[in-house]
Design a protein that fits this description.
mainly alpha, Serine Threonine Protein Phosphatase 5, Tetratricopeptide repeat, two-stranded antiparallel sheet, 62% helix, TPR_rpt, TPR-like_helical_dom_sf, Tetratricopeptide repeat protein
Length: 535
Amino acid sequence: METEHEWPPHRQTLTLPPPSRPRPLEPAGPPPARTARRTMIGAAVAALLTAGVLVVLPQTRIGGGHDAPPPAPGPVARALTAVGAGAPAAAADLTALIADRRAWVRTHPSDDASWAVLGSAYLGRGLRAADSSYYPRAEWALRRSLAVRPAARGNADAQIGLAALANARHDYGAARTLAEEVRRREPKRWTVYPVLIDAYGGLGDLKGASKSVEQLLDLRGGSVALAASGAVYRERGWREDAAVTLTEAAAYATTPVQKADCLRQLGDLAWDRGEPAEALAQHSAALRTDPGGHAALAGKARAELALGRTGAARHDYAAAVARQPRPEYLLELGELYESLGLGADARAQYARLRARAASDDGHGVSDALVLGRFEADHGAPESAVERLRAEWRRAPSAAVADALGWALYRAGESEEGLAFAKKAAEKGGRSALFSYHRGVLERELGQSGPARRDLEEALRTNPSFSPLLAPKAREGLEGLGELPEGGPKDVYGYVPDPPGAGSGSGASGSAGSPSTGSATQKPTGSGSKPPKRKQ
């Protein structure tokens, strides 16, 4: 009997189009008798992006004209009935669902809908465990579904699953292409919109993400839609709206896993605002609700470190990377060790980071952003620049612009670096780290007024944003000295244009201009307000 890691059986060969070149969808929809069933199954993708785990709706008829017996009470039933509107499922329930669907498709290999559920369950399990080894299995099952029933014949569920998988692999362009084909064909299918939100966000297209939020809210209320909306509001710098929306999402949550993810996002939002005590409270509540949440454990460690609880922070970071050694956690733990003078321990985490990124790469996942950040600060800035330039061409987001700007500074190219740092602000990026990077670049170029403003902004936003860099921000401010009598001519510094006002995704063109407004003016991320939410 094969184990889970021996699945899918390699003796079966499929000839299918590659994920980056999907077949165009045709106008014809699925036969009416199958539409209701497919609408139910389609919700299996919806919370992959809003909560990082799988959604599967209840169903007694799974697909292919075969009558799947209703599951007995237990983990499979919980996974299949995980909040009829699309709630995340627990890891154990996903594992049980995977075993159940595998057994079913062995005897019903033409059941395309069950293959789609199996593929989405593999993806949800991989996201839940931060284990990219599940992704090839997810792709295999989803493409098996499409081989049985192509997207052109109405198999939108499998295509949405492939789009969600592309997002998980950080291939946001492919995710957008796949999901947009479904949206154009079936604009009322709400499950495609969380996938589009994540894809547009990864591409740095906050306008596209916001439009998808509006469309989702028009079609769907409840926790899934609210959580997706709150994540976009946070990215756009609408922190108060994000907090209100995520609080509502937590209140509407119908499973512990779903509620815990909303609480975790609230903890991350509090961290952004420099409120470590609130961040600790939210992450602790998330862990009480869902003890298996590795992201909340890392967030808790971050907050503990800011509160001076170094021992607890080390313990929780170590526990987080023991459960799910995500590259970003390994980088954070390594830098914590480095800040404490524990060089050997830091190097061990950095070695694990490289190994994990290599493993992810073998499973089709790009960790270019976190690798670029690591290389820029830890001895390979030229490699970071090359890596991040390629990533910028693929996914020109605020995070990539900031990382590339910093890598250019570390490689001795400060003028171009500052242009990219300003691009990050233009794209709506608001964080203490972004402000710090911009301030250091301005100081390097002799722009003392803007440098002072941005370094102060970094520490005002979050005084503990990094165990390595926050002390350097304070040193940098001290080095700039006191303001001269009357103030410098450029005291207000750079104020970014609204997202979308620039000339494109490159670093050329206008990078902003000095402002004559208030010294407390901050980038807003957009000139529009969040859309109304459907309850």
